Amino acid sequence: MEERMELPQGTLDLLILKALALESMHGWAISERLQQISREALQVQQGSLYPALHRLERKGWIDAQWAISENNRRAKYYKLTPRGQKQLEAEVAAWRKLAAVVGHVLDMA
């Protein structure tokens, strides 16, 4: 896709949880992964990413610890918790249900 897209409210949390379900990552890597997987359509700015990571950490859906990155720099690595995995599953199911309903309405109109 050539055009970047705006994320609907609440979608960023879901995408972060999904990215972290694959492996633990630092913030920059999460942003890069989402951009890569979306074929450059999504570009998550630091001003949105880090508040979301902190919010998810407060909810107990992710944990964080400091480690040395591949660039030999100190970075905070985030990983999904068991509660986060359950939340991810619930949010994926809700998203798919909503998308199906919206798709049905659009097809009927």
> How many individual β-strands?
3
Strand content: 5-15%
Largest sheet: 3 strands, antiparallel
**N/C terminus separation:** 27 Å
Percentage of helical residues? 55-70%
CATH fold category name: Arc Repressor Mutant, subunit A
Which class do the helix and strand fractions yield?
alpha+beta
Pattern of helices and strands: HEHHEEH
Brief sketch in words of this structure:
58% of the residues lie in helices and 15% in strands.
Blueprint of the fold:
Layout: H1 11-22, E1 25-26, H2 27-37, H3 46-58, E2 62-68, E3 74-80, H4 82-108
Helix pairs in contact: 1-4
Describe the structure.
This protein has a single domain (11-108), classed as Winged helix-like DNA-binding domain superfamily/Winged helix DNA-binding domain (Arc Repressor Mutant, subunit A, Orthogonal Bundle). The protein starts with 10 loop residues before the first helix and ends with a helix. The longest helix has 27 residues, at 82-108. The protein has a three-stranded antiparallel sheet. The protein is globular and about 55 Å long. The model has no long low-confidence stretch (mean pLDDT 93). It is of the alpha+beta class and 109 residues long. Helix 1 (11-22) crosses helix 4. The protein has helices at residues 11-22, 27-37, 46-58, 82-108; strands at residues 25-26, 62-68, 74-80.
